[in-house]
Write a structure and sequence with these properties.
hydroxymethylpyrimidine kinase activity; EC 2.7.1.49; PM/HMP-P_kinase-1; three-stranded antiparallel β-sheet; six-stranded mixed β-sheet; kinase
Length: about 280
Amino acid sequence: MTYVNTSQTPIVLTIAGSDSGGGAGIQADIKAISATGSYACSVITAITSQNTQGVSAILPIPLEHVESQLDAVFTDLNIVAVKVGMLADSNIIKVVANKIRQYQPRFLVVDPVMVATSGDLLLEQSAISTLKQELLPLADIITPNLPEGAALIGTSVPQTQAEMGAMKAQLRSLGAKTVLLKGGHLEKDENSNDLLITQESDELISAKRFPTHNTHGTGCTLSSAIASYLAQGNDLTAAVKLGKTYISQAIAHADELNVGQGHGPVNHFYQGHADVR
């Protein structure tokens, strides 16, 4: 008898670098996608030697193997949403953009990873223009934090919510359908306020700020959660709000973990674990 899988499992592909410390990158993406109810597959673009205290080495994956990974998953799996994180250099960005055009997944979420929580640079300066030309215009949503948003449009990092708002027109000109400008770096604000910017309007999405040093992988986690909720059939605004709730709770429960001596990870599985006996 032939077994036929009739379930409609929402499948999300993460294209990103590996974090050996497990708190960010591919590892965080898979945790977030799984915790929010979707199936995660992955394409690794770089291997980092990394822990909670920083990044000590980055090894890009050969282009032909990035390409073969992409072909392997797209030709077999029904990938509904794609999340793109760390791409390391211009050539990898071009390969990924070409494959997105070829396979045309329904949703594309791009987290323009440039700087780690520790402050380490994760994207070569020369690759930023390639990212803007090749990949961002294909995206349904991009999710820059304030330093990344400033780097993308060539301005200083905003220090207030008003300065965040002043970036709207330039961020719209990047070509993505929607921009989620994350205000987590405005640490003096009582709440963590993000600005959801469409071509026609904008909306402030706010959540309580929780005091913790364990914020490694927050950007990876949020963008992956948004992709997961999109794959499950939510519209974009709903997916963003669900993702914001998820990352806020993962941060709120981060201190329940005791991982590393630097910026520890958020708690992806704060909702509990299966009782396996």
